[in-house]
Each structure stands twice: as structure tokens, then as C-alpha cells.
Amino acid sequence: MPAGGAGWQSRRVKTLLNVIWLVLAGAWLALGYVLAGIVCCALIVTIPFGIASFRIASYVLWPFGRTVVEKPTAGAMSTIGNVIWVLVAGIWLAIGHVTTAIPLFVSIIGIPLGIANLKLIPVSLVPLGKEIVPTDRAFAAYGR
């Protein structure tokens, strides 16, 4: 097998999972995040929430091969913002993830997608102070 063969196969699997994810769950969930982002940006004061929502929407569209890590520079304002976010949009987006995960668990093919859906719930509840990075970069930098 040529050098880098395992990495190539890993990318193929991630791409396949992302395409299946996009069709079964990602498009619908991303629309929810985009809607939340538009509402937050329209309210002016909540523009940082809108930006975070758009960032997560792109992650929700294509999640395999990326992960969420804590930003080391996040401070108390992120915590305060996350409390507000949970009340305004986070709980509804988390409910969307749960209701999308349930039917995915019904089929064998959907089980990894359902698990991925449940893993997105924490970032849907507390998006501020988080960063979306490629999984290989997260492993190298954070050991996971």
C-alpha cells in the first residue's frame, strides 16, 4: 500500500459520512442555525450570537473530520453570553438535534449519525468560547 493510503481511506470515509449526514440531517439542522443567526443579527445587540450561529451552521453541514475545542482566550463574557444563548436559541437547537437523532438510531447506517448528532448538543447549547478545528489539528494540539 502506498504511503498515506490510510489517510486517503479515512478522508473517503469522512466524506461519505458527511454526504449521508448532509442528506439525512445536516441540511435541516443548518437551516435552524442560519435562522437563529439571522434573527440574532437583526436584533443588532446579539450579533456575536449570530456570528457564532453561522459558524456552527457550517460545522453542522459537514461535521465529520472536524471537532470543537475550548478557546483558551475565552473569558467571563463568553460564559454570560452562553447563558443568554441557552435561553434565546440554544435549547431549541438542542431539541432539534435530539429529535433528528432519534430516527437516525432506527437504522444501522444511521447510528453513527445519531451519535454525531448527540455530540453536537453541547456546542448548540454553549457556542461562545469554542473553536471548530480539524480533528487532526485538535489531536495534535490538545491530545484528543
Automatic annotation (TrEMBL):
Pfam families in the cross-refs: YccF
Keyword Iron in record: no
Domain of life: Bacteria
Annotated Inner membrane component domain residues: 16-66, 80-130
Transmembrane segments: 16-36, 42-62, 74-95, 101-121
Keyword Transmembrane: yes
Keyword terms: Membrane, Transmembrane, Transmembrane helix
PANTHER family: INNER MEMBRANE PROTEIN YCCF
Name under which the protein is recorded: Inner membrane component domain-containing protein
